[in-house]
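Notes from hallway chat w/ T.B., transcribed later so I don't forget. T.B. wanted the structure written out for a chain they're using in a teaching module, and asked if we could keep both sequence and structure tokens in one place. Agreed to drop them here.
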Amino acid sequence: MNRKLATIIALQAFIIIMLFWMLVFYGKDEYEAFVQGEIEEEIETPNRISTEQGMTIVTLPQAAQVQSGISTARLIEGHHASVLNTFGTVINIDKLLEQRSHYLTAMAEAGIARASLINTQQEFNRLSILNRDNRNVSDRAVANAEALLKADQAKLHAAESIARNLRDNMRQQWGEALAAQATQTSVNSAMTRILQRQDVLIQVTLPFGTPLPANDSSILVTPSGSSGKTIRAYFISTSPQTDAAIQGETYYYRAPADSLRVGMRITVSMNDSQTPEQGVIVPRSAIVWYGGQAWVYRKSGDDRFMRTPVSTAQETNGGWFNNSGLQAGDEIVVTGAQLLLSEEFKYQITNENDD
């Protein structure tokens, strides 16, 4: 009986020991996490984030700035002319050449008729004088001379009328300036290049309300769908014709014919305003993105950085042009801006844990 009792006591002791070690084994992780949490709570995390007038400010000691590799640069004044992108078409000038040829022919015929009229006028005057002087010339001769005079007058009037109608037709189709150049016997060098197809004629459509291009202005054109280099085109005049595909105000330009063909659609790039805007150029390296918005960190003290929104609507070669919010002379972070943004996130996460 005593042996049986001893066996039971030994078995109970063994079970108690096993339960104790199982408790230690499974409770070790929770205990370590609890101890670690107590230690972390005892370590005070410095608050480097504040808000002033709705703007987030990060405070970072200079030693930490050097250790993090943060560097700044001052913004300088910049100018930017916004770019307008539109479309155009290389125009077929066969009709213009045909009209010019007919006009010059009519003018030549008018010149011949004018010269003939001068002779018949002189002859009519001579015969009329002789007829009045004792009838040295018969009335019939004077009548014949008068008939020739009226015929030459009619020929001159007809030739001049044809030339005038051709000129009016050209003016309706091509505009006053282009028609005036095309109807000259000795055209200027710009028109000569177009007629000899050294240059092509381009019709460009600009949005309604766009200022009239200056006489010496130019644009950059590129064949649609082409990745080739841009071609500079020079302003000629307004165009009385519209583009069926694009609504707007149309103008004529000329450009070298090397890469352009008749009927080709082109894309156009030009300055949207005559006076460039004043502002600053924000370097690309200074930009950080948060909440779908571009930001920079502007230095507002030796160890203070204010997160400031910037616009990325107008891109330049050096970055983005801004004319509000930032001024020339402002010092912004150009290296390490992402670290400052991470510092903000760290603070937000800390606040969430405190809750």
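Follow-up for T.B.: The chain has four domains: 1-43, 49-81+276-354, 86-92+197-271, 94-182. Might be a good example for the class.
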